[in-house]
Automatic annotation (TrEMBL):
It comes from Caldithrix abyssi DSM 13497. Keywords: Metal-binding, Zinc. The keyword Hydrolase does not apply. GO terms for biological process: carbohydrate metabolic process. Its cofactor is Zn(2+). Binds 2 Zn(2+) ions per subunit. One is catalytic and the other provides a structural contribution. Signal peptide: none annotated. Coiled coil: none annotated. The lineage of its organism: Bacteria, Pseudomonadati, Calditrichota, Calditrichia, Calditrichales. This is Fructose-bisphosphate aldolase. Zn(2+) 1 binds at residues 78, 171, 199. Zn(2+) 2 binds at residues 99, 129. The keyword ATP-binding does not apply. One of its GO terms (molecular function) is zinc ion binding. Dihydroxyacetone phosphate binds at residues 172, 200-202, 221-224.
Length: 270
């Protein structure tokens, strides 16, 4: 039976949300979900959509989900514009993220309201972000943690289903071990009914992610570690072989993606 993402979140389920970049990373992630018999979110960024083509990526994901026998939803990660959101809604995404977190509160709110209205007829959920979660290459020194009272106002006035919070995580790997502000997270949890999202999970020690889950995080975004294990494994394989049959070269990398995601699911009890 297919549960909606909304239902899963309302049931209090915490979900791992894994980015994919090609067929192999897609299958690697889905194999983990199938073996663990755990539901999962698959995510695409604008650059992955551009790389694969929207219809190719969506059709491939839908077919791969069925073939793997996994329960998975398809999510648009970090959309910068309502135009991309609309294309993805029309392509049947289960949820979409509009990310205007780099704009002032009122502008972020206005574009998010627009996307919520846009998504409603499609029955898709909407995620937005409030506060500064450093993107790849951006300064991790700068902070702009989510304020609980602003989160409350933002969720109430925008009607978003999911809210990405800035509590000390950043995209990509970390130079220094991050320290998540769990007390702030608890206060945000108290202040708003939206499902809370942790971005930048790659490189965060498992105990801290567990603490974040206990304090109310329901969606855990994982990207860089997937890319990294795939490419590191691929490079290692290529160093030891002259094989030109790519179907013999990719499986080891795909398998390591599966192992990574299984390990995360196990360690985080997802
Ligand atoms: P990482 O690349 O740090 O895992 O962050 C992923 C993410 O937040 C995707 O939205
Ligand atoms: Zn993110
Ligand atoms: Na990270």
């Amino acid at each position: 039976m297919h549960t909606s993402l909304k239902q899963a979140l309302q049931n209090g389920q915490t979900l791992l949300a894994c980015n994919f970049y090609n067929l192999e990373t897609l299958q690697g992630v889905l194999q983990a979900a199938a073996e663990m018999q755990r539901p999962i979110i698959l995510q695409l960024t604008a650059s992955s959509i551009e790389y694969m083509g929207l219809q190719t990526a969506v059709n491939m994901a839908r077919t791969a989900i069925k073939e793997a026998g996994a329960q998975a939803w398809l999510h648009l990660d970090h959309a910068a514009s309502p135009e991309l959101v609309l294309r993805c809604l029309e392509a049947g995404f289960d949820s979409v993220m509009i990310d205007a977190s780099d704009r002032p509160f009122e502008e972020n709110l206005a574009v998010t309201q627009k996307v919520v209205a846009m998504a409603r007829p499609f029955g898709a959920l909407v995620e937005a972000e409030l506060g500064y979660v450093a993107k790849l290459g951006q300064s991790t020194e700068k902070t702009g943690f989510t304020e609980p009272h602003e989160a409350a106002q933002f969720v109430e006035q925008s009607g978003v289903d999911l809210l990405a919070v800035a509590i000390g995580s950043a995209h990509g790997f970390y130079k220094q071990t991050p320290r998540l502000d769990i007390e702030r997270l608890k206060a945000i949890r108290q202040a708003t009914p939206a499902a809370l999202v942790l971005h930048g999970s790659s490189g965060i020690p498992v105990e801290q992610i567990r603490a974040a889950i206990n304090a109310g995080i329901q969606k855990i975004n994982l990207a860089t570690e997937i890319k990294n294990i795939f490419m590191q494994t691929l490079k290692k394989t290529l160093k030891t072989t002259d094989e030109i049959d790519l179907r013999k070269v990719f499986p080891a990398a795909r398998q390591e993606v599966t192992q990574l995601v299984k390990n995360k699911m196990e360690a985080l009890d997802l």
